[in-house]
Design goal:
seven-stranded parallel beta sheet; alpha/beta
């Protein structure tokens, strides 16, 4: 079934992509910063699904860590067939309250890192006329939502173009745009989520299942569930000042 490389693979959406891809018979390369969590996740998947799992502990915001993952993504020996660009984080404070360093790190991880891993992967996928790239975006990319929304909008736009450019050459590119997902994301941001309506929450398992169906169909953009498709439709219609309203409250 080939090899899938997943960044941010020990929790939330990334861990669920790893699990479902392993269940489908794909061998894995798991990338995250915490080696112990990586090893535990990898062993669980080996035991449960009988697949081969490589572990690559790397900080994607360091030159050394990113270079190591780029090298594996572009390797022609035991090449990666599926790249899942999932690693990311959010900032709880407003743009002017954050440091420039924090804002730069956000854009580096959400824009520059997936761009570079895509570029590395295409170097071995295009000659083989085979490959799949999955970029995790967000419904935030459809509305003005600060630097996070802008970064996710870049992923949406770039993935649309890349799917047009590379699908005829055997490489599919899909941006997945989820909404609120039950994971560690908001806990790490240290923001309250009690004010988010229950119907807006998605389980990672269902999200990834629906996303992989869209990927198999070659869609450039995947917006899992009808509720979020309708929400995105509304966001495109209402004035920007309304779609930009509302922020998560810090703990």
């Amino acid at each position: 079934m080939g090899i899938a490389l997943v960044t941010g693979a020990t929790a939330g959406i990334g861990a669920e992509f790893a699990r479902q891809l392993a269940a489908a018979g794909h061998n894995l390369v798991l990338v995250a910063r915490d080696r112990k969590r990586l090893e535990d996740t990898a062993q669980n998947l080996r035991d449960r699904y009988g697949v081969t799992v490589e572990v690559l502990a790397a900080d994607l915001l360091s030159a050394e860590g990113l270079a190591a993952v780029e090298l594996r993504a572009g390797a022609r020996e035991h090449p990666v067939d599926i790249l899942v660009n999932n690693a990311g984080f959010g900032l709880r404070d407003s743009f002017e309250a954050n440091t420039v360093a924090a804002e730069s790190s956000l854009l580096e991880l959400l824009v520059a890192v997936p761009m570079r891993l895509m570029h590395a992967s295409l170097a071995q996928m295009l000659p083989r006329t085979h490959g799949t790239i999955i970029n995790i975006s967000s419904v935030a990319g459809f509305s003005p939502r600060g630097s996070y929304g802008a970064a996710k909008a870049w992923i949406l736009s770039f993935s649309r173009w890349a799917n047009i450019a590379y699908r005829p050459r055997g490489v599919r590119v899909t941006a997945v745009a989820p909404g609120f997902v039950r994971s560690e994301f908001h806990q790490r941001m240290q923001v309250r989520t009690a004010n988010i309506p229950p119907f807006l929450w998605l389980d990672a398992e269902r999200l990834v299942h629906l996303a992989l169906i869209d990927v198999a169909r070659g869609k450039a953009i995947s917006i899992p569930t009808l509720r979020y498709k309708l929400l995105v439709f509304v966001l495109r219609l209402v004035p920007a000042r309304f779609s930009a309203a509302g922020d998560l409250t810090p703990l």
